[in-house]
Amino acid sequence: MFVMNEEGKKFDLKEGIHSTIKGFGGGLMAVENKFEEGAVAPDHKHVHEQIAYIVSGEFEFSLNGEKRLLKAGDSLYAASQEEHGCVCIKAGTVLDVFSPQREDFLQR
Fold first, then answer.
1. What is the CATH number assigned to the segment(s) 5-106?
2. Where does the chain have alpha helices with state H?
3. Could you give the CA distance from residue 33 to residue 52 in angstroms, rounded to a whole number?
4. For 19-51, b where at least 16 C-beta lie within 10 A, e where not — what string?
5. Backbone angles phi, psi at 7, to 5 degrees
6. Which of 14, 56, 88, 107 is least surrounded, with the fewest CB atoms within 10 Å of its CB?
7. Domain layout of the chain by residue ranges
8. d(C-alpha 75, C-alpha 26), whole Å
9. Which among 11, 32, 33 is positioned nearest to 22, based on CA atoms?
10. pLDDT band for position 1 (50/70/90)?
11. What is the mean pLDDT of residues 50-78?
12. How are beta strands 40-44 and 49-63 bridged, if at all?
């Protein structure tokens, strides 16, 4: 499957977080999230494993209560049911990879 940028399913994940599904199939999904400065993804957990790769910007991420400042090139792994979230310090982009796919994102 090829997904051209203008064809990816777009939705607002939260206020100030603009998401585009970049690819999905089998047990994987990739989602690009463009954050406005100050946007918040509140701490949450889900059944999916997740890798968040920081493409640009600066983010204060929390993972099981530990907080770290992540910048371009940094990443984190959240296992199934691990609590995580972030605050955008400088506007930027995060690429999330999920396993299994986020069916809830496909239904938005």
1. 2.60.120.10
2. 103-106
3. 10
4. bbbbebeeeebbbbbbbeeebebeeeeeebbbe
5. -100, -15
6. 107
7. 5-106
8. 23
9. 32
10. confident
11. 98
12. unpaired
Query: Which residue, 32, 39, 19, 31, is CA-closest to 87?
Result: 39
- What secondary structure letter does DSSP report for 36? P
Is-contact 80 29, C-beta < 8 A? no
User: Which residues, 6+ apart, have CB-to-CB distance to 32 below 8 Å?
Assistant: 8, 19, 20, 22, 55, 93, 94, 95
Please give the radius of gyration of the chain, using alpha carbons only, rounded to the nearest integer. Answer: 13
pLDDT at 5: 86
If you search the block for the tokens 């790769």, which residue do you land on?
53
C-beta atoms surrounding 69 within 10 Å? 10
**Chain centre to alpha carbon of residue 17:** 9
